[in-house]
Amino acid sequence: MGSEFLAPFQHRIEQALTTSLSQPAASHYLTEAMRYATLNGGKRLRAALVYLGCEALELDLELGDSTSLAIELVHAYSLVHDDLPAMDDDELRRGKPTTHIQFDEATAILAGDALQSLAFHQLATDKQLSTDVRIELIAKLSAAIGPDGMVGGQSLDMLAEGAEIKLDALQNIHARKTGALIQFAATAPGIIAGQHQAPLAAFGSALGIAFQIQDDILDATGDDQALGKRSGADARQSKSTYVSLLGIDRAQDALQRMLEQSRQSLDDVNLLTPSFDQLIHFVAHRDY
Predict the structure, then answer these.
(1) pTM over cut 0.90
(2) Could you give the domains of the chain?
(3) From residue 229, how far is each of 13, 56, 67, 80 by CA, in Å?
(4) pLDDT (tens digit per residue) in 174-185
(5) Is residue 1's pLDDT more than 50?
(6) In terms of Cα–Cα distance, which of 86, 242, 244 is closest to 175?
(7) Helix-helix angle 65-82:180-193, to 10 degrees
């Protein structure tokens, strides 16, 4: 089972992103960097999570458009900044030069900043959602990516380079760095619908950890061409990972436990749709 089931959602979000990034801006060069960073492929898994949740809750997909846009813009910004020389110092992203290589370091920083602000603008100006829903989405997204979420996790990750850390510390890092945005994507349809936020959040939390475990496995065992970047980056930067702490076999066992936990969270409230089940399977077996 591949990622074909994601295609309608990927097409939908690509169109929305293209439209959003076609608006006139003060600097054409900056806009080109933003487009380059965002419209260069990718799984669009986080946007798909929003749309799958909308389907499960019988919401019109249009109600999830601004949230999906915001999440993918934030995700693109985070990758641009992660790739910078001061951070992970990567030269390839999805098989292409990273944004600071294709443009320059200052432009990459500014493009990331602009993508983040554009994300919140998309949510704030979506008139299809009530004011209360918009405020809650903005509050939850800002928490997911702020000092207690994604950015805080990135800081902890950098501080842990070269150090031996325990499994609970590693889980704390990745629950913030990777998991918080995935959890928000899963929870957002519940916010829009006004129901099932808790089980959707539990599903997203477990899925986010599973996603990171598979990332660590792929970094240790994956093919550079399939990944679209150099594998082995964690080892080169002396980072603790699920693989370095547990070994491949136990990391795969942990992956399966998290996937089953994510599946059970949905099944308990009758939200485990066939599409959600396909998504969980995809996370378990992806090779990029």
Answers:
(1) yes
(2) 4-285 (1.10.600.10)
(3) 23, 34, 28, 14
(4) 999 999 999 999
(5) no
(6) 242
(7) 170
